[in-house]
Amino acid sequence: MLTPIAPPDFDVDIDLLYATPDNLTRVPIYRHPHCLLHPDAAAALRAAIRLARGIGCRLRLYDAFRPVEAQWALWRALPDPSYIADPSGGSTHSRGIAVDLTLTDGSGRPLDMGTGFDDMTEQSHHGRTDLTTEQQRNRAALLGVMTAAGWRHYSFEWWHYQLPDEQRYPLLTDAALGGLMMG
């Protein structure tokens, strides 16, 4: 049902921060880090990989499929619907059709986007004009790559992209996957 996202099949860097304490909850959420996407999202990611390569960059994924149980953990840490989807209504991550990511340069260093991943402040919103020219250019490059590959951006988080028509995709729990990530 979900497609594993990993080299060599996908030419990306994987850095699942929710499997580490380096996230907004300050504790690992995933016991077993697996980068997974719905097949439709995996196909769109392949297109984004090609486009990023065309501008001399690579993609680094911070999160992809996020089980419903993990969405609840994030909601308990920050119950703000501007930044965390209310799990009672479902998240695009929990449908396997969203990614949190950035661009890296040829040496594997993340491009400067003006804030880090999961910086839940207005500085993370798209369209900021109070960033440096380089930061604005880097965000615009990521936005261009992702939207050209069929993804939609989320206006409050420069790193979050999702497929349209989210209701077409079912919510998935870790329990339904046999405890693959959290069990």
UniProtKB/TrEMBL annotation:
It comes from the Bacteria. Binds 1 zinc ion per subunit. InterPro entries: A_A_dipeptidase, Zn_M74/Hedgehog-like. It catalyses: D-alanyl-D-alanine + H2O = 2 D-alanine. Signal peptide: none annotated. NCBIfam families: PRK10178.1 (NF007557). This is D-alanyl-D-alanine dipeptidase. It comes from Azospirillum brasilense.
